[in-house]
Structures are given as structure tokens and as C-alpha cells.
Write a structure and sequence with these properties.
Elements lengths: L14 H50 L3 H8 L17 E2 L13 E4 L2 E2 L4 E2 L33 E12 L2 E12 L2
């Protein structure tokens, strides 16, 4: 039998096969590098979230260690009612090492159910994030009114909000708490 009827094919790899193999390999390497990069970003975002959570918990523990009747004066925006004298308290905003603040702001903020100008602690604030969808009797006198309650509150709803510029853009964490007189 003779091989004369069949075309001879050279042994080895053609240039087209080599180019296709290199293209497949390049796509696989790029996919692997992308997966590694995304995994690194996810790890950094998780670390940022952990730092934020721990900072909020630390702030909560600090606040819980204070007498309830001093908390609003220490952490509201009015330096005139600070326990210990004007400007002696930390105020509502705080920094968190390890988190990048938005331009012109600080990472952490403590807020209360306030209304009016200037803002004052009020029972008639309707804000579900404070657990006050229809207001709340902060001084426990049996009624909800529109009077300032900074001097006689016995229940104090508050929220700690952290906002930072993270590896995946603007991030936010909120924690609420309710302090009560013991």
C-alpha cells in the first residue's frame, strides 16, 4: 500500500495552533489575576468593615460607662451644655484610625432625636431609626410633647453612624442604642 493518495502533514505545531494556544493561556492568566485582585479588594473591604464595627462598639461601651443624664450634653453639637464647662466634651463627631474620612467630614457621628433651631432633644420626633415611629416619652411622664427634654430625659435613643471612603467606594455603618436610667 502506498501513501501516495494522502497529503503529507508535517509533524509539529502550526503557527495558527500556537497563536490559539497562547490566546487561551493569556485569557486564563488574566482571569486568574482578576480573581486575585478582586479577592484582595474584598479582603480590604472586610478589614475596613471590621475596623468600623469595632470603633462603633468601642464608642457604645464608652457611652454606656457614663451617667445617662450626662450623655446628651457630652455628645450633642452644642458646646454650651457640656458637662465640665463649655467645649470640655467630645461633641458628636469622632475620627476612626484606619478609615478614610469623606472630604470635609469626620468618620463617626453620634446623633439623637432632635428638632428645632437650634436643635434640641425632643419627644415628638418621628424617626423609626431611633425606635420612634410616632415619638417617644423620653422623660416617662406619660405623654409625648414638643418641649426640649435635655434636662429631664430618662430614656435616650441614639445612633452612631460611620461613613468612610473605602476601597469599594463610600461605605456606611449605623448602630442604634437606647440608654435608660438605672
Amino acid at each position: 500500500m502506498s501513501n501516495m493518495g494522502r497529503a503529507c502533514r508535517p509533524a509539529g505545531v502550526t503557527l495558527v495552533e500556537l497563536v490559539v494556544a497562547l490566546a487561551v493561556l493569556a485569557i486564563a492568566v488574566l482571569a486568574l489575576l482578576s480573581a486575585i485582585y478582586q479577592s484582595n479588594l474584598l479582603g480590604q473591604a472586610t478589614r475596613e468593615r471590621t475596623v468600623a464595627y469595632n470603633a462603633a462598639r468601642q464608642q457604645i461601651e464608652l457611652i454606656r460607662g457614663l451617667p445617662v443624664h450626662e450623655v446628651y450634653g457630652r455628645y450633642n453639637a452644642d458646646p454650651g451644655d457640656d458637662p465640665g464647662g463649655k467645649g470640655a466634651a467630645p461633641g458628636p463627631e469622632f475620627d476612626v484610625p484606619g478609615l478614610a474620612a469623606r472630604p470635609g467630614a469626620r468618620v463617626g457621628r453620634i446623633s439623637f432625636p432632635e428638632a428645632g433651631v437650634p436643635p434640641s432633644l425632643r419627644e415628638d420626633v418621628c424617626d423609626a431609626s431611633f425606635g420612634m415611629p410616632r415619638g417617644r416619652d423620653l422623660n416617662r411622664d406619660g405623654r409625648i410633647d414638643a418641649l426640649p427634654r435635655a434636662g429631664d430625659y430618662r430614656i435616650l435613643p441614639m445612633r452612631i453612624t460611620l461613613t468612610w471612603e473605602g476601597v469599594s467606594g463610600r461605605q456606611r455603618l449605623e448602630m442604634g442604642m437606647l440608654l435608660t436610667e438605672k
